[in-house]
Prior knowledge:
By secondary structure, the chain is α+β, with helices and mostly antiparallel strands. It has 4 helices and 5 strands; from the N terminus they run E-H-H-E-E-E-H-E-H. It has a 5-stranded mixed beta sheet, with helices on both faces. A hairpin with a 3-residue loop joins strand 3 and strand 4.
Amino acid sequence: MADTAAIRPARSDEVQQVLALWREADATPSPTDARDKLMKLLGEPSAVLLAAEVGGRLVGTVIGGGDGWRGNIYRLAVLPAYRRQGIARALVGEAERRLSRMGARRVSALVESDHKWATDFWDSLGASGYRHDERMRRYVKTL
């Protein structure tokens, strides 16, 4: 059903919908889950917030950000009723294309290990080149 999902950049008038989608999709709240932070992200040339829309409703998002040679994917979220329809794959594919155009040659995805639906999804992308990197550990500091 991914062919019925339109993947496009999110608009500034959709920021509250994006935040609500993340809550409904059970994304763990973050200090950056705020209207002003997303508005700033929308203006950032090295990042993109993509939205998946079905029938006029936002049903998924992904954030892609890059530093010119590496790309990162964050906040891949699809509403539970729309999962397993190819929407997440379509979001990731578009994020990859945009990150590649920004100069990224490698992409990392931050995935919450306690969200089985999320790790299962990324594990399913093994044939397309994604692999779980056991060598790395993430450290985070909220500023």
